[in-house]
């Protein structure tokens, strides 16, 4: 580890250094054991820390905005390189706070590195438009908002931070980031790696509870949030008082439609991975499956085979464990996974086995409510493709969906009709950094990733000159 500070004792990161306050110390709970670890303690932020972070960001804003795009590009590239050099240590931190298998944690670290490098390439390409119309010369400028507040969820702590930090900083904003209270370690360690790269005040990271998050949102020029729909709605109401620009990436109840000509085994593998990876704690996890009647039984059997090979970690905490258990009591499951990794074999922890329900009515809670656990609901089979699309679209959510089948005309017909922000065809859960990611309806507003994410963190100004 090449950071400036040992990562087992961290606190609010403001003005390029860590703050301490013994009264707010919070131990880290390892979800794999359900117990706190004495080796890692985080000092949580207070509202006063938020005020200090906002002041430091305001003081740094003019200087950071005036840096050249190439300077911001090089800073992001250098930061990504520092993360790559500390990949193993960061993987260990992510595993400790989330309980993920090593392969999953490594994937998250690598995804964050690639995201930072991708948006570094945009830092010197903040282009506007120009037009001459008779006696007028019009141009548009893309300017950073100023200070942006980022609040991220516990399910992919470092990756979600990277998705938002990278375009925000590339565009010239200063950032105040609040990680989820359960999983602050990797965001704080990432800030540590930036200490000799980003000027003081450009980045603050404030671990803490909802009160800290509300205080952050109260003082920024632009806000971006990833979390539950209920929390997103509360943030939107709060931001409405000042009409603060807002990006929301919220919940989902994501459908997959399996057509009769699909490759059953391949599709089942994608569906099982989409449903059970990260213990189902994924906003775009597969949670509803509609299968054409003639292949229904064969597809269910193939999913069951995949379930017994599923490898993933625990749920994040006791509250989430209890919530998922409530859903598991709603009807008798068709199959419960047997993979050793889904059992409580290491002395406790918040492990829940992969669970499959079949013949689930479209209006049942298992088919309508986001569970955020390793639970897959197979709805009643369909005979008509358009009726399947209609049933899939009935959800109040609109984040992600999938369709499997060999007839390209049919699969693209389905994809074009699904009312979601992201649709996979014959694959699932692949999110390259160049594709915008965001939902509609109760799944959110705006986008992470892609050129669209850079647009989210810039304000468009028109300048008109008479000729």
- The CATH architecture of the largest domain can be named as 3-Layer(aba) Sandwich
Q: Give the % helix.
A: 25-40%
What is the subunit organization of this protein? single chain
What amount of the residues lies in strands? 15-25%
Can you tell me the CATH superfamily of the largest domain?
A: Aldehyde Dehydrogenase, Chain A, domain 1
Q: Decide which structural class fits the backbone.
A: alpha/beta
Please mark out the parts with pLDDT under 50 across 5 or more consecutive residues, or reply none. 342-346
Largest sheet: 7 strands, mixed
Query: What is the CATH topology classification name of the largest domain?
Result: Aldehyde Dehydrogenase, Chain A, domain 1
Write out the strand line-up for the largest beta sheet, numbering strands in chain order. 15-16-17-14-13-19-20
Highlighted features:
467 residues; alpha/beta; Aldehyde Dehydrogenase, Chain A, domain 1; Aldehyde Dehydrogenase, Chain A, domain 2; 2 domains; seven-stranded mixed β-sheet; globular
3D architecture notes:
The structure is a single chain. The protein is α/β, with parallel strands linked by helices and 467 residues long. It has two domains: 9-250 and 443-463, 3-Layer(aba) Sandwich (Aldehyde Dehydrogenase, Chain A, domain 1); 254-438, Aldehyde Dehydrogenase, Chain A, domain 2, CATH 3.40.309.10. The chain has helices at 47-66, 69-85, 87-98, 102-120, 157-170, 185-193, 210-218, 229-240, 264-276, 296-307, 318-328, 365-368, 385-393, 408-417, 450-456; strands at 9-10, 13-14, 17-18, 25-30, 35-43, 130-133, 136-144, 147-151, 174-178, 203-205, 222-226, 246-249, 254-258, 286-291, 335-336, 355-360, 375-379, 397-398, 400-404, 422-425, 440-441, 444-445, 458-466. The protein has a seven-stranded mixed beta sheet, with helices on both faces. Helix 6 (185-193) links the parallel strand 9 (174-178) and strand 10. Helix 4 runs parallel beside helix 5 (157-170).
């Amino acid at each position: 580890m090449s950071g400036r500070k040992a990562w087992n004792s961290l606190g609010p990161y403001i003005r390029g250094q860590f703050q301490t306050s013994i009264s707010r110390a919070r131990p880290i709970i390892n979800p794999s054991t359900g117990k706190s670890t004495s080796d890692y303690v985080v000092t949580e932020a207070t509202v006063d820390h938020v005020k200090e972070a906002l002041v430091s960001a305001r003081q740094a804003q003019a200087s950071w905005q005036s840096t050249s795009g190439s300077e911001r590009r090089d800073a992001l590239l250098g930061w990504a390189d520092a993360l790559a050099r500390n990949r193993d240590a960061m993987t260990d931190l992510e595993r400790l706070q989330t309980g993920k298998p090593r392969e999953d944690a490594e994937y998250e670290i690598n995804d964050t590195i690639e995201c930072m490098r991708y948006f570094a390439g945009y830092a010197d390409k903040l282009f506007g438009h120009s037009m001459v119309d008779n006696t007028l010369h019009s141009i548009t400028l893309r300017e950073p908002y100023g200070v942006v507040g980022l609040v991220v969820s516990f399910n992919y702590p470092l990756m979600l931070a990277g998705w938002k930090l990278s375009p925000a900083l590339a565009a010239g904003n200063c950032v105040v980031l609040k990680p989820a209270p359960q999983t602050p370690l990797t965001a704080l360690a990432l800030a540590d790696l930036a200490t000799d790269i980003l000027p003081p005040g450009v980045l603050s990271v404030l671990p803490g509870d909802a009160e800290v998050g509300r205080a952050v949102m109260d003082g920024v020029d632009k806000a971006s949030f990833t979390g539950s729909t209920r929390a997103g709605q509360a943030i939107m109401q709060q931001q409405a008082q000042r009409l603060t620009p807002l990006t929301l990436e919220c919940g989902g109840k994501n459908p997959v439609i399996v057509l009769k000509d699909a490759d059953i085994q391949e599709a089942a593998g994608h569906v099982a991975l989409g449903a059970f990876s990260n213990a189902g704690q994924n906003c775009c996890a597969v949670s509803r499956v509609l299968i054409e009647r003639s292949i229904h039984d064969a597809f269910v059997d193939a999913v069951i085979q995949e379930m017994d090979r599923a490898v993933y970690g625990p749920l994040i905490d006791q509250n989430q464990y209890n919530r998922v258990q409530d859903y598991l009591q709603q009807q008798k499951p068709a199959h419960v996974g047997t993979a050793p990794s889904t059992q409580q074999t290491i002395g406790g922890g918040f492990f829940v086995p992969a669970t499959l329900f079949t013949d689930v009515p479209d209006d049942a809670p298992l088919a309508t409510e986001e569970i955020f656990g390793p639970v897959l609901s197979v709805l009643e089979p369909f005979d008509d493709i358009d009726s399947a699309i209609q049933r899939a679209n009935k959800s109040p959510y609109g984040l992600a969906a999938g369709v499997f089948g060999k007839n390209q005309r049919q699969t693209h017909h389905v994809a074009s009709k699904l009312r979601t922000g992201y649709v996979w065809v014959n694959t699932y859960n692949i999110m390259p950094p160049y594709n915008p990611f965001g939902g509609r309806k109760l799944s959110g507003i705006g986008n992470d990733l892609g050129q669209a994410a850079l647009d989210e963190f810039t304000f468009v100004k028109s300048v008109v000159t008479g000729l």
